[in-house]
Every structure is written in C-alpha cells, then in structure tokens.
Specification:
By secondary structure, the protein is of the alpha+beta class. The chain is built from 19 helices and 20 strands. Helix content is 41%, strand content 15%. Strands 1, 2, 3, 4, 5, 6 and 7 form a 7-stranded antiparallel beta sheet that branches. Strands 8, 9, 10, 11, 12 and 13 form a 6-stranded antiparallel beta sheet that branches. A 3-stranded antiparallel beta sheet has the order 14-16-17. Its EC number is 2.7.11.5, 3.1.3.-.
Length: 600
C-alpha cells in the first residue's frame, strides 16, 4: 500500500539523486552515440568499434555510481520501507514531462534492487508496469529536431526531394555522385509500388538522425502513397576513393528485419526521445517486439525490462510446460524451452567432460565477449538474467531431473511468495531466440532425399544450408572470431534463412590462434597411427582436420568443396589473421551483394 501522505524528509532527495544518476547516464550515452557521425565521416572504424564496446558498459557503471552516492549521502540501504514507498511516488512526479520516462523507470529498478535486501523486496518498490505513458512525447525546445522529417514530392520533384532528404543529414564528406545514386534509389523504389499514380498524400518520412553501425550510416524511413506504405533504409558507405555513396536501397519489412537482426551489433543513434523512435520503427516492422528495438538501439536494459514483461504476459496466457530442448545435448550448456515461446533458455552446467577444459567464469566471459563484439549478423545476441523465477507446475519432471543432475548449483525450488505455490529459481540463465539447429535442418533434407534422390526442394535446402554455413564462418573470421567448435549442431538457421552461430564456450579471437598445416608423417608407423603424432601447442589450429568431423555425408562434402574448400586450408585463415593484425576492418553488409548499386 502506498502512504497517504509524503512526510519523509529524505524521500524526495533520494528520488532526485536517482533521477540525477539516470540523467547523467543518458547524457553520456547520447553523447557517445552522437559522436558516431564524426567517426563515420573520418573513417575511424577502430574508434567506432571501441565506442560500441565501451557504451555497453555505461549503464552498469552509472548504476554503481548512483548506489554509492545513495548509500553514502542517505544511508539508503537502512531506510525503512515506508520511505521507499514515498521515494517511488516522488520519482513518478519527476517522470512527468521527462523525455525518457521508460528508461528512467528501468534505472530506478536497477538501483533499487541493488540497494534493498531481497528478503524485504516487494513489487511496490519498483516499476513492474510503466507508471508514465510514452505516447506522443514531444521535445518543445525551439531548436529541437522532430522525431522524423516529412518530404512531399510531386511527380516532377521526386529526385529533388530524395536529394534534400539525404543532404538534410549534413554529412561533412562529399558524395561521389549523389544525383546518380538518388536516381538509382528512385528506380528501385518505383519497382516496389503496385501502381504508378501518385496519390494525394504521397510523402517520404525519414527518422531525423542517422543510424550508425560498422562502416555504414543508414537513413531509415517509409514511403506513403495512398493506402500503401513501404519501409525503406538507405545504407551510405565510403567508396575506395573516400567519397560517400548510397550503397543500396532496402525496401519492405523483411529487408529491415535483416538490418535490425538480433545477430547484429547495436546501432549508434542520437535520440532525444527513444520511445518515439521505437514507435516509428515498430510501425515499419510490426512483427518485431518492442524489446528488440530498444536492444538494437543500444538500450539493452530497457529491452530486458520489456522482454520480461512480455514473458510474464505470455506465461499468463499459455499452459504448456518447459521441457528439455530438442536436439543434441551440449556438453557445457543445458538448454530448455517452452514450445509456445520463440526463445530458448541456457544454463551453464556444473561440470564438463575432460575434453572441455573450462570453467563457469570462462564461459560467462565468452558470452560477454560476444555481447561486446561486432556480431556481423552471425552470432545470436543473448539476454542474461540472474535469479529467474518460474512456476514449478510449468516444468516437466524430466527437466527438473536434468537440471538437478547437471546444474544443481543453479537450481532452487521454493515457495518464495508465501502463497503455497512452488517456484523454480534458476540462479543464472541466458535467453536467446530459438532457431532450427543446422544439423536438424540438414537431416530433414537427407530424409527427403533418401525417399526421392531427385527431390529439388530438398537439394536446394541442403545447398542453402552448406553455403550459408560456410558464409557464416567466413563472416566470423573477418570479424576476428574463431568459432572453436564448428559442428553443425552449434549453428542455427533463422526464419530468413540466415545461418547463425550460438555456441560460444570455445570461441577465440583469430589473432590468438596459430593456423598450421599438419606436418608430414616421418615414417610409416606415424602415417598409419590413429593418434596425433605431432606436437600441438595452445592456440594451434589445423584446418585440414575439420573435414572428417564436418563432411561425412557425400552430398554435404560435394557442396562444401564446391563453395568453401578454402576453409580447409591454413592459408585462408592465416591471411585473414594478418589483415586483422594490420588493422583492417572488414566490410559487413546486412543485405546481399546483388542488392548493392556499385559492387564490383
């Protein structure tokens, strides 16, 4: 119950200090995001990568700062519960007319849960649901940019409006030939519309700041013509001469879903009102949850908050049970899922077979490496939760037995709410989007081809899987990632047909590996031996030895050797390592090569 009056002498000061902490956080976050424009203009790619890594740490640092201040100035951890109830009410008052109220609520939750002893923790003290609406928030300051800009071309001014839209972003690098690129955009756009007539409300709408990631800048918006709306994104990159070009024109929800994929690094975007950006983006991609937009924009904690609210909502409106996830069981991670829910839950086991020389801390470090690294569309992002609670009645007995056997330190079953209902508490869990494991996807093709060796659909599925698998590894290599365990079961295929890696316990930087050719045997005994006769040091990798583990099926081997035989050669890996050491940053395009206007 909330207090009937606000009579604490410190509650308002605590609330104000927490809001000061959040405002400092978002100011620093926004400043770093805004600097992405200058780094893009000056082609400071290594600086861009560092900034993306550093920005991920901002939130936790600001939470720690705030907790330290509240503890020191207000002895916050010893304040009685009625004071904390008043703190929350004062904080709600401070959210009125705030431009990032949803982010400020999440920051309040983070600080509060760090300070309050969990034994006394109640939902009254945090924002379980949002207290302030994010609808129609506007920045009324005189010089403020609107969330998006509108352009109203006529039939004879289409080119001029595209040129104006691009120039409004005020990039301080000349374009190679902007008129040429704008015409290419218009030609691509016209092919996407059902009719040629311009309706009364024909317009372009573009979000008013650029989206920066890797070596690209993106204009994101939509075209409206009568009843038809078409999302679009225009990637801008530097050509070899250092001038700017519009590299492609992406149209439609599917193109944009690939651009905003969960397997890609977070964008840097300067946003005064992030909820307005999310609302605009959701209009372009209605199938994508709001949580994933916040995560794509670098606001991962807000994404987690919304994800958890969506999860609780799903739990209330479903009845199926958590089970051991289908597929080959991992040696390091225990994986379970809820059939009706499009995510899987991964728990680090307590012990591993001898060939896995690792520890819980090392595995968590690998997952953090992936979080901080450029995932180039080939590594699944994960949400990390501590002490996640689930109703016991929603777990199969087989799953409870599996966790008890392999990860007993991570499991507690208790009546935490005192309502007579048992909860399953998982102390540490990773959650990532469900994909079809690549080995299962291949097996489906094998089964169909066994029935009909000429099945064209099954052969196309097999080819697509093998080609995409090799492309995924090559993208990872270019991003300085050696997957370690490259078995098919450690990769999944998304709904867009992209192959993504999701088993991180053995990943290493390419630059930490030594790619070697297998030495020639010195005698017949070594040649006939089933054992390794040559020395292997830490970091040594022998690409020639991948074949026996990966290419046992003749059809798979034929496709692999046709498209990716170079992956079995040490020279391929060593050359990439040398380029990375020399400071080269790989070009990453979230669209196919044939979509590029100027690809050689």
């Amino acid at each position: 119950m909330f207090p009937s009056r606000l009579d604490s002498p410190v509650a308002h000061d605590i609330a104000k200090a927490m809001m000061d902490g959040f405002n400092r956080h978002y100011r620093l976050f926004r400043t770093e995001s805004a600097r992405a424009k200058h780094r893009f203009e000056t082609q400071d790619w290594n600086g861009q990568q560092r900034a993306q890594r550093d920005r991920i740490e901002f939130y936790d640092l600001r939470v720690k700062e705030c907790v330290k201040r509240l503890t020191k100035e207000f002895v916050a951890h010893n304040q009685p519960m009625d004071v904390w109830e008043q703190v929350k009410l004062h904080y709600i008052g401070l959210l009125v007319n705030h431009h990032q109220p949803e982010l400020a609520e999440t920051f309040f939750n983070s600080v509060t849960t760090k300070i309050l002893n969990r034994a006394y923790f109640q939902n009254d003290f945090i924002f379980v649901r949002p207290a302030v609406s994010t609808e129609y928030i506007e920045n009324d300051e005189p010089n403020a940019k609107p969330t998006y800009l509108c352009y109203y071309p006529q039939a004879d001014s289409m080119l001029d409006k595209v040129l104006l839209m691009v120039r409004d972003f005020d990039l301080r690098v000349p374009f190679d030939d902007l008129d040429r690129d704008a015409m290419l955009v218009l030609d691509a756009m016209k092919a996407r519309f059902d009719h040629v007539k311009l309706r009364a409300n024909f317009q372009f709408q573009a979000l008013s700041t650029l989206f920066f990631r890797n070596k690209g800048a993106y204009i994101v918006g939509k075209i409206i013509n009568g009843f038809q709306e078409m999302p679009f994104a225009l990637p801008i990159v530097h050509n070899e001469a250092g001038k700017l070009i519009i590299d492609a024109a992406l149209f439609g929800e599917d193109d944009l879903l690939l651009l905003f994929s969960f397997a890609r690094a977070y964008f840097m975007v300067d946003m005064e009102i992030p909820s307005a950006y999310v609302q605009f983006l959701r209009n372009l991609m209605p199938r994508k949850p709001r949580a994933e937009f916040y995560i794509s924009l670098g606001l991962a904690k807000q994404g987690k908050t919304l994800f958890y609210r969506d999860f609780l909502f799903h739990m209330r409106h479903s009845t199926d049970k958590f089970r051991i996830a289908p597929g080959i069981k991992g040696m390091v991670m225990l994986v379970f899922d809820l059939p009706s829910y499009p995510f899987v839950f991964k728990v680090i086991k307590d012990f591993y077979p001898p060939q896995k020389d690792t520890s819980r801390e090392q595995i968590r470090g690998k997952y953090q490496l992936v979080k901080n690294h450029d995932r180039v569309g080939r590594m699944a992002d994960t949400l990390e939760f501590s002490v996640a609670g689930f109703p016991r009645e929603r777990f199969t007995d087989e799953l409870i037995a599996e966790i008890t056997k392999f990860a007993p330190s991570q499991l507690e079953i208790a009546d935490t709410n005192g309502d007579g209902k048992l909860e399953v508490l998982i102390k540490h869990v990773y959650i990532e989007r469900r994909m079809i494991p690549l080995n299962i996807y291949l097996q489906e093709a094998f089964d169909a081809l066994r029935i009909d060796a000429q099945d064209a659909v099954a052969q196309a599925q097999l080819t697509r899987a093998v080609v995409e698998y090799g492309n995924a590894i090559k993208d990872l290599v270019a991003a300085n990632i050696f997957p370690g365990d490259m078995l098919w079961k450690n990769f999944g295929i998304t709904r867009h047909g992209k192959v993504v890696f999701y088993d991180y316990d053995e990943i290493e930087y390419i630059t930490d590996c030594n790619f070697r050719k297998v030495p020639e045997p010195r005698n017949e005994e070594e040649e006939m031996s089933g054992e390794i006769w040559y020395s292997v040091a830490k970091g040594d990798v022998f690409p020639e030895t991948f074949g026996p583990f990966l290419l046992g099926n003749p059809r798979v081997r034929a496709e692999f050797m046709r498209h990716h035989a170079d992956l079995l050669e040490p020279d391929f890996w060593q050359q990439h390592k040398e380029r990375i050491v020399a400071g080269h940053v790989h070009d990453v395009f979230p669209y196919e090569r044939d979509r590029r206007f100027h690809a050689h």
